[in-house]
Design goal:
Elements (H helix, E strand, L loop, with lengths): L34 E2 L11 H9 L13 H11 L6 E4 L1 H13 L5 E5 L4 H9 L3 E5 L8 H6 L5 E7 L11 H10 L5 E5 L15 H6 L3 E6 L12 E4 L2 H10 L7 H12 L1 H23 L4 E3 L5 E5 L7 H10 L2 E2 L12 E4 L3 H16 L1
Parallel strand pairs: 1-11, 3-4, 3-5, 5-6, 6-7
Antiparallel strand pairs: 2-8, 7-8, 9-10, 10-12
């Protein structure tokens, strides 16, 4: 008579070694309403039309959402000039990144990750039993030559963020095209373009054109940043039909909830509000950079809704700056949240909020 194994349930190899994701701090002791600039959220907030659509969806909470996501996919396709058949929506772009990794990478496979890729891509890779191969970004943006050099016969996917986080820099179109052209045709290039909506540079490519011109490029986008719908967890991807087919086979029927679908459809159609959010962010980013640079703070150029600061002067450092900001009721992203050493990431707020940050950092430097 055989005996059953004893002991505690054992997780899959590798998962127990992962550290749980640590989100940006949201509260401060003795501060009732701190200024939270730690999570790259839109301080302008969502479109009034998106809020109205969200509220109206409350009358139908007893019904399942549209599993085909037809209305939102059509709106995205119309606004961005895309093929709606290649669009899939999800519970944030995070879920869609997970779907692609689940569909194409498994035990023994390699997934190449550019250094400042979204941390959850690494988590999903390890959870699948695949090997995560990190590639440095010495210039604080993806390095095409290094990424191509990391590709081996075991490689199933290359993942990079453009713009990247926490730096906020992007890979120019010519370099992105060179990367895609240099990859074997069976290796997927997964572009995390969460901050694409902020970028106005002429040499930027979010990834849609590459999706349409090849069979191995996937672009993911989000409504959490520019559109201010972080609380609803809604994102989308644009991919070749074969990839869409595989993702649809593992996607749960109602992975995007009805309120999120309704709000996102209204948000993407409200192009006026989206332009307002983008233009204010970019103007404030330039103003912040000029003001902080004037007092000796090093601001890394960013095209997203956050900026990275460093303190080259003696006696001043990111830890001290973070403590000073928090003492003034402002929450930045902790310096140990990843990214270049001796730096601090801060989200772009509204003009009056950015004035508070500028004043606090100026006082810190001059104290």
């Amino acid at each position: 008579m055989s005996t059953l194994p004893s002991g505690k349930p054992a997780p899959l190899a590798g998962i127990a070694k992962l550290a749980p994701y640590k989100q940006g701090k949201a509260t401060l002791n003795d501060v009732a309403e701190p200024l939270k600039l730690s999570s790259n959220e839109s301080m302008l907030g969502p479109s009034p039309k998106a809020l109205a659509a969200y509220q109206a969806s409350g009358a139908s909470l007893h019904l399942y959402p549209d599993g085909s996501q037809q209305a939102l996919r059509s709106a995205i396709a119309e606004v961005h000039g895309l093929d709606e058949a290649r669009i899939v929506c999800g519970n944030g772009s995070d879920e869609l990144i997970q779907f692609v990794i689940r569909a194409y990478a498994g035990p023994g496979d390699d997934v190449v990750l550019s250094q400042y890729s979204f941390a959850m891509a690494f988590v999903h890779t390890i959870a699948q039993g695949a090997n995560a191969i990190w590639v440095d970004e010495p210039e604080m943006k993806p390095d095409v030559d290094a990424l191509l050099a990391a590709v081996t016969p075991k490689t199933k996917m290359v993942v990079l963020a453009s713009p990247n986080n926490p730096v906020g820099q992007y890979l120019p179109r010519a370099e992105l095209l060179r990367l895609q052209a240099g990859l074997p045709s069976h290796v997927i290039l997964l572009l995390d373009s969460a901050y694409a909506d902020y970028v106005v540079a002429e040499d930027y490519e979010a990834g849609a054109a590459l999706v349409e011109a090849s069979d191995n490029v996937v672009m993911t986008r989000t409504f959490s940043k520019l559109y201010g719908l972080a609380g609803l967890r809604i994102g989308w991807m644009y991919a070749p039909e074969a990839v869409v087919d595989m993702v649809q086979r593992i996607r749960t029927p109602f992975n995007a909830n009805a309120a999120a679908l309704a709000a996102a459809e209204a948000a993407v159609r409200d192009t006026e509000h989206a332009a307002l959010a983008r233009d204010e962010n970019n103007a404030e980013l330039a103003r912040i950079s000029e003001a902080l640079s004037a007092v000796g703070i090093d601001v890394v150029p960013s095209v997203a809704n956050f900026y990275l600061v460093r303190f080259p002067m003696k006696g001043r450092d990111p830890q001290g700056a973070a403590a000073h900001l928090e003492a003034n009721g402002i929450i930045p992203r902790p310096v140990n949240a990843g990214g270049p050493e001796a730096s601090l990431r801060i989200s772009v707020g509204r003009p009056h909020q950015n004035d508070r940050v500028i004043a606090a950092l100026r006082d810190y430097v001059n104290a």
